[in-house]
Write a structure and sequence with these properties.
Elements: H1 2-28, E1 31-36, E2 39-44, H2 49-76, H3 85-122, H4 137-169
């Protein structure tokens, strides 16, 4: 079962890295230029801070998952010496903490970018913010695809966090609270 769990975690990490990089590239390379009111106007991701943050956050979270993926692969291949039981508990807690941080930060960045995109789609007349997606439709469609990839990556990160939590709490005794299982022979 442990072998299947490691393969599943590796597949989920690789898939989330691909989706996070795809999100960062779709947002980061998205721009559209239109001729509006006798001038050329350009819509780009760097004009909205939430989209700029999304690119950076997704790149960092993808890098973290790539490091974790290669760390797991090198441990499985025997290139890195595995830790004894006592220190593996601390590493398991650290892994859970970092995976949780990655999920929350990626979800927060995607949600902020979604909110900014929703304002661009609908506008807010009270603040005299006009709709932009009726003028820059290709930009908005590509941004919608990028946000969909970002939320799918967040869903995969949640499943990775579940696996990390399972790997941590299987080290503890089911009969006594926070008592480690004994090391047998």
């Amino acid at each position: 079962m442990k072998y299947h769990m490691e393969n599943t975690e590796a597949f989920l990490r690789l898939s989330s890295v691909i989706l996070l990089v795809l999100t960062a590239l779709l947002v980061g390379l998205d721009h559209q230029t239109k001729f509006v009111f006798f001038t050329y106007r350009k819509a780009s991701f760097d004009q909205v801070n939430a989209l700029l943050v999304l690119v950076y956050v997704d790149a960092v979270v993808a890098g973290y998952n790539l490091v974790r993926l290669f760390g797991k692969c090198s441990m499985s291949a025997g290139l890195v010496k595995q830790n004894p039981q006592g220190s593996s508990v601390y590493l398991a807690w650290l892994s859970l903490l970092l995976d949780q941080i990655a999920v929350y930060v990626a979800f927060g960045a995607n949600s902020a970018a979604f909110q900014a995109s929703l304002i661009a789609l609908t506008g807010i007349s009270e603040f005299q913010w006009m709709k932009l997606c009726n003028k820059y439709s290709r930009f908005c469609f590509q941004m919608g695809g990028a946000l969909s990839c970002g939320y799918l990556a967040c869903l995969l990160l949640i499943f990775i966090s579940f696996i990390t939590a399972f790997n941590l709490f299987r080290l503890y005794s089911p009969k006594k609270l926070f008592l480690l299982k004994s090391i047998s022979g």
